[in-house]
């Protein structure tokens, strides 16, 4: 379950909650001039727990079954169920008193979010309630792989699931949300706040005269004419639409894990009508400047490049720059070598002494700017890493790369009309020991094999398995993606995909990179 949206102008938001009302029995005390005694209280009844089932995504004019079968009562029995619709285009429930009633979505209701509330009552009269959302998508019924519009989120994208695979950024500036992809009441663990706001707005502009010093265009004209637009403009505060952040580290917050700066601002210009070339362009590595590999529709950038590298023996200076138990430090720039993959633990959860610390979305804040290093499931169904979307199509567009091509989740329908998971074409060098790099400033990190056979040759006593560093990988042409993690789908649309092994997100682009996909952290 994610969130519920009211169709009224008040935009009332309902979280996924179970509301329990406790019934108590009060026994009167006897009284008199000589005092009185009280009888023991009757046990407090525990209210039932309502469960309205998982959110669903369905088409128009289809039968939908609501499901309250998982509701339970721990100290009695559920004696009645009652369903009612609380938001969205009105439908008729066949029998609202059934545990699993049915209804049929109506014609031309695509884009609606239908919300239903289930109330269950136990044998003592106590009640519990829960809610479920049924997203109705629009699609051409004659086109098997047509685009499905995202629902109207009414300005509340909190933990939302997207559906649309339209590769054109202009579709998201003109959809049911009118470009509003913001959210509210978001939990920030870095500041112990539960009322954070994600501000994201997408519109169309005619942009010219790039100003590299401010990562912005000098002349921008807003337009509603999609044919005239040169870019989609996304303005965000880089606060995501989901629970985020980790506890701040270091004395007085002086570690490299910092609180997320909610006043941060990013203006990103996504090129329209990108052209795929045969020449790839790597994402630059220019710390402390962020050079993003992409930006998601929730307004947060992807910065896959690592600031962690092999540098053993640093025991003084700021805590954040000292060597960890694996021989790695942070603060590494383009002169360094042997960059540790920050998100390596996605593919190897048992990896020890990782330098990076992430929240549940493999993201954190560096000098205030929240950013992703890899993708798990933001803007997608929670199981997107292991299961294809429930609507039977590929994963949705979750963002855009610097060249304007879309970034999808883990799944796509290939040109053979097979629904497949995106698989990286990169492999680890099949060697026992890393080949030294002549320009490396701090030597070569040892593997476990090295420490078992020649420990005297290395400065570190921690063996790092092959695959832990960027330099351990090469493009072998395996899998179903190109060197930039891209592929064509069944519609002939090119885009980049998320993978659970290196490079995780697009490490390069096959189109011209727009320089607005770079910024400085707000405190630098």
**Pairing-aware structural class of the strands and helices?**
mainly beta
Count the helices. How many? 2
Indicate the radius of gyration in whole angstroms. Answer: 27 Å
Mean pLDDT: 86
Percent of residues in beta strands: 25-35%
Q: In which order are the strands of the major sheet placed?
A: 22-23-19-18-24-25
Residue share in helix: under 10%
Model description:
The chain has 524 residues and is mostly beta strands. The protein contains two helices and 33 strands. The strands form twelve sheets. It has a six-stranded mixed β-sheet with strand order 22-23-19-18-24-25, with no helix packed on it. It starts with a strand and ends with a strand. Residues 1-37 have low confidence and may be disordered.
Characteristic terms for this protein:
524 residues; mainly beta; five-stranded mixed sheet; 27% strand; globular
